[in-house]
UniProtKB/TrEMBL annotation:
Organism in which the protein naturally occurs: Methylobacterium marchantiae
Cross-referenced InterPro entries: AA-Vitamin_Transporters, EamA_dom, EmrE-like
Membrane topology listed for this record: Multi-pass membrane protein
Alphabetically ordered keywords of this record: Membrane, Transmembrane, Transmembrane helix
Sequence similarity: Belongs to the EamA transporter family.
Alphabetical list of Pfam families matching this protein: EamA
Subcellular location: Membrane
Name of the protein described by the UniProt record: DMT family transporter
Chief subcellular location: membrane
Top-level division of the source organism's lineage: Bacteria
Taxonomic lineage from the root: Bacteria, Pseudomonadati, Pseudomonadota, Alphaproteobacteria, Hyphomicrobiales
Residue stretches making up the EamA domain: 151-280
Membrane-spanning intervals of the chain: 12-33, 39-61, 73-93, 99-117, 124-144, 150-168, 180-203, 209-227, 239-260, 266-286
Amino acid sequence: MHAPDTRTRLASLAPVAALVGSIVSLVIGTSFAKQLFPVIGAEGTSAYRVTVAALLLLAVWRPWRRTLGRRDAGVVVLYGLVLGCMNLLFYLSLRTVPLGLAIAIEFVGPLTVAVAASRRPIDLVWVALAILGLALLLPLQQASAGLDPVGVACALGAALCWALYILVGQRAGHLPGGQAVALGMSVAALVILPFGIAGAGMALLSPSIIVAGLAVAILSSAIPYSLEMVALRGLPRQTFGILLSLEPVCGALAGFLILGERLTPLQGAAIACIMAASVGSTFGAYRARRVG
C-alpha cells in the first residue's frame, strides 16, 4: 500500500536532487579548475571547459541537421559571444577572488534582469539587498581591502554578460534548444580558444593537462548541463530559481574545503544578502504570476 507513495515521493525529489547535484558538480569542477591556473592560466582552463562542452553538445544535438536563416544565425553568434565572454571573465575573476564571492557577484546579472522586468514595490527591497551585498564586496573600504579590484571587475563583467546571455537567449527562444546551445557553445569556444592558446601555448597539449582539462570540463559543464535538464523538466521555474540561489554558498563551501579559501564575516554577510535578494525576487515573481 505504501510502495506507490514512496515511489511518488522519490520521483518528486529526483529533480531537486538533480539540481543540487548539478550545483555540487559545478562548484567542485570549478574548484579543481582553479588549481590548473598556475600551469595553463585562467584562459587555458576556460578554453578547455568550453571547447569540450561544445564538442559534447555538437555530438549530442548535431545542429547542422537544421539550417538557420541569416537573422537567426546572427542571434546565435551573439549568444555565443556573450556566453564565451561570460565564461572567460568568470575564470579571470577566479585568479584573485574566492569562488563563493565570484559566484555571488555574478548572480547580480540575472537578478538585475529579473528585477528590471518587474514593477512591484517589494523589488526595491531586493535591489537594496543586492546593492548592500555588492557594497560589502567592492574593494573600496578597509573591510574588503584584500579583494583585487581587477578580479572584482571581471566578476562584474561576467554578471553583465550573464544578464545579456539571458536577454539574447530569449531572442533565440524560438529555435530548437539543443541547436541553439550547441552552436552557441561552439561560438563561445572560438572566442575563448585564442586566449587559451596565447596564454598557455604548448602546455595545453601536455597529457596530464589534457586529462585534467577533460575532468574539469565534464565536472563543470557536461554533468551540470545534463542534470539541469532533468531538473528543469521536473521543477517549477520558481523552485528552480530559489534552489539555484544556493550556488554562492556551495561555492564558498567548496572553496573552503578544496582550495582553503576563507571568507571574512563581512564577505559571508555579502553572500547572504545577494542570496536573499535572489530568493526574494524569484519567490515574489512566482506569487505575482499566481495572483495575476
